[in-house]
Amino acid sequence: SDHYFCGRGFADAASSCEHPCSSGSLADCPTGMLCYFDTPCDVRDLNLPTLKPTNPPVEGAWIPPTQPPWAEGDPRLYQFCGNDWQGASDSCTVWCPGSDDSKCPYGAWVQEVWL
Q1: Which helix (H) or strand (E) holds 87?
Q2: CA distance 12 to 7
Q3: Strand partners of residue 80
Q4: Which of 81-106 are b and which e, b meaning 16 or more Cβ less than 10 Å from the residue's Cβ?
Q5: Whose CA is closest to 79, among 48, 109, 51, 107?
Q6: Which of 18, 60, 68, 93 has the smallest set of CB atoms within 10 Å of its CB?
Q7: Pairing of strands 5-7, 34-36
Q8: In terms of pTM, does the model score above 0.70?
């Protein structure tokens, strides 16, 4: 099964060595290709992902998150579309940080909702 590869023909499978089909099943192959056995290709020669990482994670490699684009308390964080303040406050489904009513669904406009 180490020499089973997909191709548009045996010559294609044998020369590309691109798509292994170790189970021998057509289901392992991309659309339009068949699984061929006894090719000169060897799945062990491919750099396929392993189940285990090859190197352990580096200790202390954590990077802190970046700063948000707007500071806490910026009014743009609290602008939502709604037919009125209560509707926008209840759902908060369409955020509109630019106060542009044209971005709201028909019949709604930007409301400032401070939670």
Answers
A1: helix 85-91
A2: 5
A3: 95, 111
A4: bbeeeebbbeeeeeebbeeeeeebee
A5: 109
A6: 60
A7: antiparallel
A8: no
User: How many angstroms separate the CA atoms of 16 and 49, rounded?
Assistant: 19
pLDDT tens by residue, 7-61 = 999 999 999 999 999 888 889 999 899 999 999 999 888 876 666 666 776 777 6
Number of Cβ within a 10 Å radius of residue 61: 6
d(CA 54, CA 51): 9
Q: Whose structure tokens read 């609290």? A: 78
Report the Cα 67 to chain-centroid distance in Å. Answer: 23
pLDDT of residue 5: 93
Would you call 20 exposed, middle or buried from its count of C-beta atoms within 10 A (0-12, 13-18, 19+)? buried
